[in-house]
Amino acid sequence: MSIELEELHGARRSNIPPFIVGRCPASFDHQKAVNQVICRLAVYKTSQCLWIASLLPRNMVHVLTPPPENPSHSDIIWLAGPRLLGLLFNWSLLGVLTTQVYIYNIGFPKDKVALKTIVYVVYALDWAQTCSATYDGFQWFVYGWGSIPALYDMYSCFLNVPILSSIIGAIVQIFYGWRICIISGSWIPFSVVILLALLQLGGGGAVGYYIYHDASEVARSSGLVRAVGIRLGTSATVDIFIAVSMTFFLLRSRAQALEHTNNILTRLMRLTVETGTVTAIAAIVDLVFFIKAHNGLHQVSGVILCKLYSNTLLVLLNNRLVLAGETSHHHVHTIGESFRAAAPHSTDSEPTMDVPLVDLSAKKASGDSQFV
Q1: How many CB atoms are closer than 10 A to CB 65?
Q2: What span, in angstroms and rounded, lies between the C-alpha atoms of 174 and 195?
Q3: Is the pLDDT of residue 246 over 90?
Q4: Which of 59, 74, 95, 296 might form a disulfide with 79, Cβ 3.0–4.6 angstroms?
């Protein structure tokens, strides 16, 4: 990608990570460059997604439960409308996730291979889930436009909603469990998280099995309802358990930490509670709508649940940029006014963003944070 620097001369610098600013010419418009990269990547990936969707067969599953013979106008609206909104939210959150992955890629090139693998595997699975959901959208609103049976069929929903979402959710939940293990120094919470994550993964596989053998929106067999209850109920449970456990162990570490470390712990606690609450609420809303509302409302939260998990993972990892900036700011202010007057701040002295995850284990009596 070529950018004419002459056209960008004199442009105002935007809020781009400092390490990017420090390595580029002063006349370089970083925001425009980042926007162009993201837009071109999105267009390229979208064309790939639509091409893959066009290659998929029209009939992937079996339909045993017939659709209503004469659905009302309201029934059609409450079935098609939530599906359309779910697709729009899905693509929007995928765009947010793409930006997060881009920031992670350029901000943490020295992260461990295992951590990078988790990030890129989750990102690839999210693209697969979006391609599958887009395929369903084409069946409902393009190939099957005006057909009531086509609107009530679920096509590849057995793959993108329960199976891929459960896999992504389990990966993120187990990662959070590993962080709890490091912070607490105990394997018990980690074991509980793994058990619950695998249980919801098994529930997702069971839901996919039932939907594959009866891919009808009106199908509500007892086995399907139980499987959905296990998957979403367990998912909400493990999210709440993670949020409570992280908060408890971070509070315990905070009691032994220094003043500046307290600020870091407070931010981590707030971030953990917020992200855990979002995913837990989405799972609960999906479960309630599936059981109580016999329409497409449950698909709004169901189809975007995996994107919420992925974005919470990247938010946690990229939050180290903020923590690194605060740490650098704190050290600058502890040097003293005279030293700072003699050594003025410049963009070249910005801290590097290759910041590893922080070990805030309570077993360290000093209370200082350690990088792992």
Answers
A1: 13
A2: 9
A3: no
A4: 296
Closest CA to 101 of 358, 371, 326, 313: 313
Give the amino acid at 95.
Answer: G
pLDDT digits (tens, 9 = 90+) for 63-104: 778 888 888 999 999 999 999 999 999 999 999 999 999 999
b vs e for 87-111, b when ≥16 Cβ sit within 10 Å of the residue's Cβ?
bebbbebbbebbbbbebbeebbeeb
Domain assignment present for 17 = no
Query: What six digits make up the tokens of 254?
Result: 């905070």
- Whether 1 maps to a domain, the answer reads no
Closest CA to 79 of 218, 212, 208: 218
CB 216 within 8 A of CB 152: yes
Longest dimension (CA), the chain: 82
Give the pair of three-digit tokens for residue 41. 């990547």
pLDDT tens digits for range 267-283: 777 788 888 889 999 99
Q: H or E segment at 370?
A: strand 370-371
pLDDT digits (tens, 9 = 90+) for 126-136: 999 999 999 99
237 in a structural domain: yes
Judge whether 232 lies within some domain. Answer: yes
As for how many domains the chain has, the answer is: 1
195 neighbors 242 (Cβ within 8 angstroms): no
Query: CATH number for the domain including 43?
Result: 1.20.1070
- How much of the chain, in percent, has pLDDT values that exceed 70? 67
> For 349, which DSSP code?
G
CA 136 to CA 244: how far, in whole Å? 37
